[in-house]
């Protein structure tokens, strides 16, 4: 994917509304990332409404900052990114078309919460954190 010759990685986390899964991924990645060559943003396929306060509280308790308003995908973001991680099972990879050289799309297929159940939210956040931990380690290896 990326080598030490890569200038910069512009990582875009995507979910359906940018209210939960991609926001969690962005917040946690920013918290643990120490590599200045990796920039990160998040967006929703559809711009969502405001963040859920219960979700923010649970995320904070689990050490994940959730900041900013939900944003939708834009041509500016799609041009900026060179790596997309779809943190959702309800956003098809094929909508991004064929990848161009030096661009990659990864899909994690993480389900969304349906009822804002605190236990379910907690489990999803833990799952995303684990995926980010593994992903970050793999990125370190690939860009060394």
How is the secondary structure organized here?
Elements: E1 9-15, H1 21-32, E2 38-44, H2 53-61, H3 75-80, E3 83-86, E4 104-107, H4 118-143
Parallel strand pairs: 1-2, 1-3, 3-4
Can you walk through the features of this model?
There is one protein chain. This protein is 37% helix and 15% strand. The chain is an alpha/beta fold and 144 residues long. The protein has one domain (9-143): Rossmann fold (3-Layer(aba) Sandwich), CATH 3.40.50.2300. Strands 2-1-3-4 form a four-stranded parallel sheet. Helix 1 (21-32) crosses helix 4 and helix 2 crosses helix 4. The longest helix has 26 residues, at 118-143. The termini are close together. 33% of the residues are buried.
Distance linking N and C termini:
12 Å
What are the segments in which pLDDT stays under 50 over at least 5 consecutive residues? none
Please tell me the overall pLDDT.
89
Spatial extent as radius of gyration? 14 Å
Percent strand = 15-25%
CATH topology: Rossmann fold
Order of helices and strands: EHEHHEEH
Helix and strand content put the structural class at: alpha/beta
**Helix content range:** 25-40%
CATH homologous superfamily (4th level) name: Response regulator
The number of E-state strands comes to: 4
Q: Could you say how many structural domains there are in total?
A: 1
Summarize the structure.
This protein is of the alpha/beta class and 144 residues long. It contains four helices and four strands; from the N terminus they run βαβααββα.
